[in-house]
C-alpha cells in the first residue's frame, strides 16, 4: 500500500470533483492547490476518454494558451468563455462575500493581504467560482467580512451570471445557494464531524448536522497526483510540488 | 526617436514625482533598473501596477520612494506577503488606490484609445468601488435597467519594464506579454531594459512582428543583462526563488530591509 491520502491531496481531489463538466477552467496567481485540482481533472478526463478540459494557469508558460496578455482571461470571462475560477480570501462570510484586502479599517488595515486581484470582476462573470480557503477557523470564516473585495450576491439591476459555487476548506465542503445567499454543509473531511465544523465556522449555514464524509480518491487517482500532477506543478509551484508525497 | 542609454542614465531620466507604470513580477518586471532608482534616491512616485506588484514594488515602498500606489495586489508569490507594503499600509505612509485587475486594464485601454473612460462589468457592491472617486456607476445608455461601472483613463508618464530584446531602431520584442504592450501604448513613453540588442530589425520577420512593440512608443532602451533578476523574465528565465525568499525574510523589519539593500548593493 502507498502512503495514505494527505489532507492536501484530498482537497486537490475534491477540487477536481467540483470541476466536473467544465470545458475551460482558469487558475489565478499563488494558487497551487486549485492548479493541481484543475490539472487532475484534465488528466482524469484524458485517461477516461472524456471531454478535453482547457486549463489556463496564470503565471505558467506551459499551461496557458492565452496570447492576448493577462487581459485575455478577463475578456474570456466577460464573453462566457470561462466556466470556472477560484477565489481565496483572508475572510469569507456567510453571504459569500470575500475579503482579500485585510482586517480592521481600510485603508490603514492592521493586517493587510495582497489585494483584490480580479475578484471584484470574475465573481460576477464566471458561472462556477470555487472558494478555496485552507484554514477553517473563526477568523477566516466570519459572520461579516471587514472589507468586501467581491460581493457574494447582487440585485437584479446588476449584470451577473457568475458567483460562488462551493466553499472548500481543510475540514469541510459547502455548497452555496444563490437564491438564499447561504452556504450548505455538504460533507466533512475524514477526522472532522459536524460539531467540529459548527465550532469553527463563524457564520450560520444550512444542513448543520451533516453526517456525510468527503470521499477519498482511489489508488489510481492518488498515483496520478503523485506522478503526473506533481511534475506539472513544478514549473509554477516548485516549493509546493516538492512538499507533496511522491517519488524523488 | 528612441534613445540608447546606459541603465544608470535611464535611472536618471525617471524623475521623482512621476506617474510610473510597472509590469508584474515574472512577466516583464524590471527589478534591476528599479534597484538603481532606489540607489539614486527617487521620491514621491505615483506607481501604477499593471495590474499587480511584487518584489520591485515592495522595495520601492520600503525605500520610501512611493507616495501613491495604484494596484490590484502586492505579493511575493510563493514567498508570501509583501512586508514593506504591509508596513506602509499600517503606518499610512502611502496613499492607496486599491483596484481590481481588469479595471486597471480598462483604464489603460481608455488611455490607449484616447477616450476618457471605459465601461466594465462587475465591481458593483465591492468596497473597492466605494474607495475610488475615479470610478463611477452609471446606467447603460442603451438599456436603462442595467447599472454599469466606468473607470477613468490611466495614463502613466513613463512605463518601465524589462524585455528579452530590442533592435537598433528601438523596436522591442514582448511576445505574448500583451499586457505590457497595453501598458506601453497607454503611457506617455516607455523605458525598457533588455537582455540583448538585435542587430537585425525585429519587424522584418513576420513571425515575430505581431509580438513587437514598435519604437513609436519607446523613449529609451538600455541593455541590462538579467535585468529581471531576482524575479523572472517571461519565457527566458524563472524567478530565483531563494533570493526572493531571502528578501522576504530580511524585509520583515525596516532594519532587515536596509541591510538587504546594503548587502545586495555591495555584491552588484
UniProtKB/TrEMBL annotation, chain A:
Taxonomic superkingdom: Bacteria
SUPFAM superfamilies reported in the protein's UniProt record: NagB/RpiA/CoA transferase-like
GO MF, one annotated term: CoA-transferase activity
Name of a matching Pfam family: CoA_trans
Entry protein name: CoA synthetase
Automatic annotation (TrEMBL), chain B:
Signal peptide: none
Alphabetized GO MF terms: CoA-transferase activity
InterPro entries xrefs: CoA_trans_fam_I (IPR004165), NagB/RpiA_transferase-like (IPR037171)
Protein name per its UniProtKB record: CoA synthetase
Amino acid at each position: 500500500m502507498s502512503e495514505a491520502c494527505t489532507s492536501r491531496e484530498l482537497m486537490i481531489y475534491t477540487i477536481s470533483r467540483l470541476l466536473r463538466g467544465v470545458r475551460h477552467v482558469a487558475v489565478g496567481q499563488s494558487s497551487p492547490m486549485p492548479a493541481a485540482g484543475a490539472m487532475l481533472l484534465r488528466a482524469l478526463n484524458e485517461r477516461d476518454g472524456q471531454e478535453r478540459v482547457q486549463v489556463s494557469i496564470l503565471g505558467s508558460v506551459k499551461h496557458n494558451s492565452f496570447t492576448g496578455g493577462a487581459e485575455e482571461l478577463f475578456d474570456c470571462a466577460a464573453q462566457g468563455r470561462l466556466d470556472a475560477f477560484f477565489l481565496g480570501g483572508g475572510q469569507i462570510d456567510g453571504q459569500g462575500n470575500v475579503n482579500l484586502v485585510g482586517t480592521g479599517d481600510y485603508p490603514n488595515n492592521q493586517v493587510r493581504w495582497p489585494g483584490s486581484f480580479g475578484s471584484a470582476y470574475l465573481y460576477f462573470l464566471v458561472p462556477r467560482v470555487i472558494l478555496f480557503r485552507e484554514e477553517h477557523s473563526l477568523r477566516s470564516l466570519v459572520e461579516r467580512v471587514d472589507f468586501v473585495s467581491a460581493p457574494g450576491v447582487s440585485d437584479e439591476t446588476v449584470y451577473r451570471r457568475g458567483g460562488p459555487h462551493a466553499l472548500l476548506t481543510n475540514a469541510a465542503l459547502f455548497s452555496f445557494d444563490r437564491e438564499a445567499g447561504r452556504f450548505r454543509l455538504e460533507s466533512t473531511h475524514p477526522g472532522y464531524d459536524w460539531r467540529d465544523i459548527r465550532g469553527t465556522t463563524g457564520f450560520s449555514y444550512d444542513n448543520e448536522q451533516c453526517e456525510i464524509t468527503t470521499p477519498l480518491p482511489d489508488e489510481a487517482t492518488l498515483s496520478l497526483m503523485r506522478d503526473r500532477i506533481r511534475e506539472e506543478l513544478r514549473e509554477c509551484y516548485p516549493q509546493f510540488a516538492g512538499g507533496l508525497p511522491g517519488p524523488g | 526617436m528612441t534613445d540608447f542609454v546606459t541603465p544608470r542614465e535611464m535611472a536618471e531620466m525617471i524623475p521623482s514625482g512621476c506617474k510610473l507604470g510597472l509590469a508584474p513580477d515574472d512577466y516583464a518586471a524590471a527589478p534591476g533598473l528599479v534597484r538603481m532608482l532606489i540607489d539614486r534616491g527617487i521620491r514621491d512616485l505615483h506607481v501604477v501596477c499593471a495590474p499587480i506588484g511584487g518584489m520591485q514594488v515592495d522595495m520601492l515602498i520600503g525605500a520610501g520612494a512611493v507616495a501613491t500606489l495604484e494596484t490590484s495586489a502586492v505579493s511575493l508569490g510563493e514567498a508570501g506577503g509583501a512586508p514593506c507594503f504591509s508596513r506602509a499600509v499600517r503606518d499610512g505612509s502611502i496613499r492607496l488606490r486599491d483596484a481590481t485587475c481588469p479595471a486597471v486594464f480598462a483604464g489603460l485601454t481608455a488611455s490607449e484609445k484616447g477616450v476618457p473612460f471605459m465601461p466594465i462589468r462587475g465591481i458593483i457592491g465591492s468596497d473597492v468601488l466605494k474607495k475610488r472617486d475615479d470610478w463611477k456607476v452609471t446606467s447603460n445608455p442603451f438599456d436603462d435597467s442595467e447599472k454599469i461601472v466606468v473607470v477613468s483613463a490611466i495614463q502613466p508618464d513613463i512605463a518601465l519594464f524589462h524585455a528579452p530584446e530590442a533592435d537598433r531602431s528601438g523596436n522591442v520584442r514582448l511576445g505574448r506579454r500583451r499586457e505590457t504592450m497595453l501598458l506601453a501604448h497607454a503611457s506617455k513613453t516607455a523605458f525598457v531594459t533588455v537582455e540583448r540588442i538585435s542587430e537585425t530589425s525585429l519587424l522584418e520577420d513576420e513571425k515575430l512582428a505581431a509580438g513587437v512593440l514598435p519604437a513609436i512608443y519607446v523613449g529609451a532602451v538600455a541593455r541590462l543583462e538579467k535585468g529581471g533578476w531576482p524575479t523572472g523574465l517571461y519565457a527566458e528565465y524563472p524567478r530565483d526563488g531563494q533570493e526572493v525568499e531571502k528578501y522576504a525574510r530580511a524585509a520583515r523589519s525596516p532594519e532587515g530591509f536596509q541591510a538587504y539593500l546594503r548587502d545586495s548593493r555591495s555584491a552588484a
